[in-house]
Write a structure and sequence with these properties.
Number of helices: 13
Largest sheet: none
Number of strands: 0
Distance between the termini: 47 Å
Number of domains: 1
Shape: globular
């Protein structure tokens, strides 16, 4: 009787995944030691739903009819998804500036362990944030209308895009290398989420601005979620390709981000040790 030997590919993957899982546990344990961050992160989705849903929503009518809060919730899901970039960037930059990254690199760990740990931890952190927003949305009248399968597909798309965006955050954090600089860059991400169809239809924008908004990944994930949830959505009179095929656009964007930023993050992480 012969014993099966692991393939070279499996052997190469086991070490980065194993080391990465250890660092995921480290990030989660660090959050447990900082309960203030957890509370603030859990309150943020509730504040967003109340602020946009009631304060702004009282003055906004959805063209074509429909409840504004049902129109809004997919946009808020998209907004929270894109917080992965600044969150991971700030934590990665903090570890780099405090010498944590260098200490981990001096150990016999895989090159992808640190980036994998950061992105994996962010994905775990994002799940309760998403759950809190879902519960809050249900309380204010939002609900999915197209059944369990379409609803699950929408949330899987959101989780996939958040994971891909986490790798963008890792790369930016390694490049910035300073926690204060990373914190100063955080407000620059707000226009990315606002310049989209998340809160208002894009038809009223100037043509050049509508083009930017329609090709914004925030618009793609928002439109995909609206379609899959069966929530009110306004089709543009001049739809761009991502707005006609939002699910495909999100999948292509997520895969493209992973193809580009996983090797970039690994290379930048390795170069810092030279």
């Amino acid at each position: 009787m012969t014993t099966a030997t692991p393939t070279p590919t499996a052997g190469r993957l086991r070490r980065p995944v194993g080391d990465g899982l250890v660092l995921v546990a480290r990030e989660v344990a660090r959050l447990k030691a900082e309960p203030g961050q957890i509370v603030a992160a859990l309150i943020f989705p509730v504040v967003m739903v109340v602020l946009f849903g009631y304060v702004f929503g009282s003055a906004i009518q959805v063209p074509g009819g429909g409840d504004y809060r049902e129109y809004l919730m997919p946009g808020l899901f998209a907004m929270v998804t894109f917080t992965a970039v600044q969150g991971v960037m700030t934590r990665t930059a903090a570890d780099a500036s405090q010498g944590v990254t260098d200490r981990i690199r001096s150990m016999p760990t895989a090159r992808l362990a640190v980036p994998f740990g950061q992105t994996g931890a962010d994905s775990l952190i994002g799940l309760p944030l998403l759950a809190i927003m879902v519960v809050t949305g249900l309380l204010v009248g939002w609900q999915p209308h197209r059944g369990a399968i379409s609803t699950a597909e929408a949330f899987l798309l959101i989780v996939l895009l958040r994971y891909a965006l986490g790798w963008v955050g890792v790369y930016l954090g390694l490049v910035v290398k300073d926690e204060q600089t990373a914190a100063q860059l955080v407000p620059l991400f707000l226009p990315v989420t606002m310049l989209s169809n998340a809160f208002v239809p894009t038809d009223g924008m100037p043509a050049w601005l509508r083009f930017v908004a329609d090709w914004n990944p925030v618009s793609a994930i928002t439109a995909a979620a609206r379609d899959l949830f069966g929530n009110p959505g306004v089709r543009s009179a001049h739809p761009a390709w991502p707005m006609e095929h939002p699910v495909a656009a999100v999948l292509i964007c997520s895969v493209a981000l992973l193809i580009v930023f996983v090797p970039l993050s690994a290379r930048t992480h390795a170069r810092r040790g030279r």
